[in-house]
Write a structure and sequence with these properties.
Elements lengths: L2 H9 L11 H8 L3 H13 L3 E5 L2 E4 L1 H13 L1 H16 L5 E9 L2 E9 L13 E2 L5 H7 L4 H17 L6 H14 L2 E4 L6 E9 L5 E10 L5 H21 L18
Antiparallel strand pairs: 1-2, 3-4, 3-8, 4-5, 6-7, 7-8
Helix pairs in contact: 1-3, 2-3, 5-9
Length: 264
């Protein structure tokens, strides 16, 4: 493992569950010497990624906020998705609803943007909060479009969780359920993450046809008549396709070609 990897590993120790660390404790956790821990903390502090909040106590620093602002302004998927999400929210009419844009992040699903028509969202998903990969329509529609090698690895590493979540008793059953979700083009979940909520999710692809995330609508189950779910599901599928087609990566300007004089 390179020094850069070790520094990043130490930065990853700062979580919502444990937001404050000392260099000594972080060094023990990361498996490096105390002197190395202090050196890594100094590098992270100089970069603004952590800051000292008390004697020998450090938390995430202001550079994280700056990076978040840059993502909000520059992420091409997010910039394209916001108008689509606003349109879906308007289509929900007066019913309480939340629209979610989520991305695959490590072995979980990360909410990158949420739009709600209520002061308090009816969904527990919020920007920057990782959510389970094996529960909920938002996650399952992403899971269903992962390449086979990733599904094989997931089965080896998390077989008990997959069985417990009802996604199949063996690898063949697991892949069969995901194949059905993939064929449907949409996933609907009932209270799998938030009790009393129905989530509808459609996949979002890049220009190469690879899964990049999901677009979801969450409503209260008390408002979810069969007709309402069908209408919103159709709208959601159409808007997810629209989003997939309009995602454009930022193009790097081509370098001008060198011209050579023709031989006389």
């Amino acid at each position: 493992m390179s020094s850069a990897d070790k520094v990043l590993r130490m930065l990853a120790l700062f979580t919502a569950a444990r937001p404050v660390w000392s260099p000594e404790t972080a060094a023990r956790q990361a498996g490096v010497s105390k002197a190395t821990g202090y050196r890594y903390f100094q590098s992270l502090m100089e970069a603004g990624l952590i800051e000292r909040i008390a004697r020998n106590r450090y938390a995430l620093g202001p550079a994280i906020i700056e990076f978040d602002r840059q993502i909000r302004q520059g992420d091409p998927i997010l910039k394209t998705a916001v108008p689509v999400m606003d349109h879906l929210l308007r289509e929900c009419g007066g019913m309480a609803a939340t629209i979610l844009l989520c991305r695959l992040y490590r072995a979980r699903v990360m909410c990158v943007h949420a739009e709600s028509n209520r002061a308090i969202s009816i969904s527990s998903y919020e920007r920057g909060r990782p959510r389970p990969l094996l529960r909920g329509a938002t996650s399952k529609i992403i899971l269903a479009h992962l390449p086979p090698r990733m599904l094989d690895a997931l089965w080896r590493e998390r077989r008990k969780e997959i069985v417990a979540s009802g996604l199949g008793a063996d690898l063949d059953g697991f892949k069969a359920q995901l194949r059905d979700i993939r064929a449907a083009g949409l996933c609907v979940g009932h209270g799998e993450v938030d009790a009393g909520r129905i989530g509808m999710a459609a996949p979002v692809f890049d220009r190469d046809g690879d899964i990049v995330g999901s677009l979801s609508v969450v409503i209260a189950d008390t408002q979810a008549t069969r007709k309402t779910v069908a209408r919103l599901s159709n709208l959601l599928s159409a808007q997810a396709r629209r989003l997939s087609w309009t995602i454009q990566p930022e193009r790097v300007p081509a370098r001008p070609r060198k011209t050579t004089k023709a031989a006389a």
